[in-house]
Specification:
Elements lengths: L1 E5 L6 H12 L3 E3 H10 L3 H11 L6 H12 L8 E4 L5 H14 L5 E6 L2 H11 L6 H15 L1 H6 L3 E5 L4 H13 L3
Parallel strand pairs: 1-3, 1-4, 2-3, 4-5
């Protein structure tokens, strides 16, 4: 089962991805985790990412894509995976579709976990992180709506819309029902 989870920050994607991957036995492939693992492992890609981030720049798509290709080639991802944090825009999604098509392993379902912006703002503010200022939250939501939301149209019928409002177990139940409906 090859899945993609998308949605704005604060929607609970990471929490839901962890629960789901444990339940269905596929790896949770988070680009943020890939960056951290490569940096802490001092891999050649990790050294490149660290230098870029230390310079205050965004990691180029090619570097992220190299890490992703390497991760998806690992044995535990043969049975499937849940991608989290990639793709974030149409260009990345087109690249990913091409890579997966070459392997004959297309994305089966895109889980769109969403909530109203007011709820997302409340959740992110409640986390108490230093980078969760009202201005930065609004900026991240604006970027999501401008760059990531178009993925919904890109993936079309593969998208399962999940209401991200409610208790963690309620949202997980909605996700599981959406996946069960695929079979």
């Amino acid at each position: 089962m090859r899945l993609l989870i998308v949605g704005p920050q604060g929607a609970g994607k990471g929490t839901q991805a962890e629960l789901l991957t444990k339940a269905v036995g596929i790896p949770h492939v988070s680009t943020g985790d890939l960056f951290r693992a490569n940096i802490s492992g001092n891999t050649p890609l990790g050294q490149k990412v660290k230098a870029i981030m230390d310079a205050g720049q965004l990691v180029p798509d090619e570097v992220t894509q190299d890490m992703l290709v390497d991760r998806l080639a690992q044995p535990d991802a043969e049975v499937g995976f849940l991608l989290d944090g990639f793709p974030r825009n149409i260009s990345q999604a087109s690249w990913l579709e091409g890579v997966l098509a070459e392997r004959g392993t297309p994305i089966k379902c895109v889980l769109l976990v969403d909530a109203p912006d007011e709820v997302l703002r409340e959740r992110m503010t409640a986390r108490g992180r230093s980078d969760d200022t009202p201005e930065s939250i609004d900026r991240r939501l604006a970027i999501y709506h401008a760059e990531t939301s178009p993925l919904i149209e890109f993936y079309g019928e593969k998208v399962a819309r999940i209401d991200g409002v409610g208790e963690i177990h309620e949202v997980q139940e909605r996700i599981r029902k959406a996946i069960d409906a695929l079979d």
